[in-house]
Each structure stands twice: as C-alpha cells, then as structure tokens.
Structure to design on (146 residues):
C-alpha cells in the first residue's frame, strides 16, 4: 500500500518505515528536532528550507475540526453552557497539542515522500542481520565459559 497510517502515526520514515523522523530521546524543549537523514535508508527529513510550512496548515485544519466538532455537539446537542464547552475545548487542545504538532509534520512528509517496498525489505534484512551479529558474541562467551 502506498500510504501507511501506522507509519505516519508512529513518526516512522515514509520511505523505509523503520527509522524515526524525530530525534530520540524526546525533549519537551525541542519537540520538532529531527535527524538530517533517516538512520536506515538515508531519506532526507527536510527536503528543502521551509518544507514544513504546509504542515502548519494541516495542523491548523485538523486540530480545529477535532476541537470544534465536540464543542458544537456539547453546546447544541447536550445543551452545555458555552463556558463549559470552552473548558473542554481548551483541555482537548492541551492534551492533543504535541500529537497534532508532530503528527502534522509526519503526515506532510508521508504525503510528499513515496514508500519504497524494496528499500523497506533491504532495511528489514539489515536490522535482522544486526540482531544476529549482536547475538553471536554471547554464544561464544558461553562456549568459552562452558
Ligand atoms: Zn528510512
């Protein structure tokens, strides 16, 4: 499939679906810090200056609908007061702030960069090989001790 919601939601590289597009570990002071390239396939995370300008509009559109619809339902269907519904709107915005901030960048990158199943397979094999080589020395140690 061309688009993977799972990969977008978990901030994976859109090309190989393995590398993380945000720097780890997560720092609250730098929520948008990204590595220059995907650690596995080398996909550039910021293809050009101002690339994520469009993500700002995505974030604005998605988050406003996400907050507006429940707020309108509370006021017009459940007959809540505007103040009460506003408190819920603010709480919803606070709770989902980081998800929309990073998620919109991830979605934007996933819209612009095509998935490459060949690269994904190659990276999967590399990861599997790394696991195996990391595991072998332990076996050798056991052999020496045993
Ligand atoms: Zn990648």
């Amino acid at each position: 499939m061309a688009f993977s919601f799972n990969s977008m939601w978990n901030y994976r590289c859109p090309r190989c679906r393995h590398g993380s597009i945000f720097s780890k570990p997560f720092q609250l002071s730098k929520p948008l810090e990204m590595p220059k390239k995907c650690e596995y396939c080398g996909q550039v995370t910021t293809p050009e200056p101002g690339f994520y300008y469009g993500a700002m509009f995505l974030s604005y559109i998605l988050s406003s609908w996400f907050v507006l619809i429940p707020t309108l339902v509370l006021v017009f269907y459940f007959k809540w007061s505007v103040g009460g519904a506003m408190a819920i709107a603010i709480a919803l915005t606070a709770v989902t702030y980081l998800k929309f901030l990073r998620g919109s960048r991830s979605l934007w990158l996933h819209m612009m960069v095509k998935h490459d199943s060949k690269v994904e397979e190659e990276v999967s094999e590399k990861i599997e090989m790394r696991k195996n080589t990391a595991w072998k020395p332990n076996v050798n140690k056991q052999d020496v001790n045993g």
Q: What stands out?
A: Residues 13, 15-16, 18-19, 38, 40-41, 43 surround zinc ion (CB under 6 Å). Residues 82-112 form the longest helix (31 residues). The two ends are 49 Å apart (CA to CA).
